Amino acid sequence: MEQNNQYWKDFSNFIGGEFHEAAYWYSAKTVINYNGFYIAFDGFGESKKVYCRFSYGEKIALRIDKKSFINKLINLFISRQKTNDKRFDKQYLVHSPNPGITSILNFLVRRMYIDLDIAGLFISTDKAGSSEEVLFDNNYELIIYTKGVRFDYEYLKEVLVLFKHLVDNLSSRYNITPVNLE
Question: What are 147-151's contacts with CB under 8 Å, separation 24+?
């Protein structure tokens, strides 16, 4: 646990974020404020996640997974959308009941997503995110997962740039508002 604390403490210093030490069942994390959105990094071992909470007045959901046999089966039961980017659509499955949500996945976001080899992305109120609680009152989490990729601070800094683009695109397209993580 001490090694994980040190990892996130050093990363906090690297990007100018705030370090939150591991306590009880919560892992250590780095939090930065970006235009009022509290973006958190945490994880242990080869899995890392970046997330923030936001509020939106309507139902919104998004799931992006790497293509696999199991995900193709799931695709039979969940509304799938395409980005019209052959390279992206060949590697990832995009699921959402919200028509047009792929507009947040502009060319820059799709290129960064592929180049950074992101494992998954979710917009959800469910427990799939940063905590064991279900979110209410039109509160959601935007979550990016990385797994088995580089974990140096430069890589995570690039993931932060991608995340900021997603927050900006969601803010512009859906007029989301920040919600504190605590």
Answer: 147/46, 147/47, 147/48, 147/119, 148/46, 148/119, 149/116, 149/117, 149/119, 151/46, 151/48
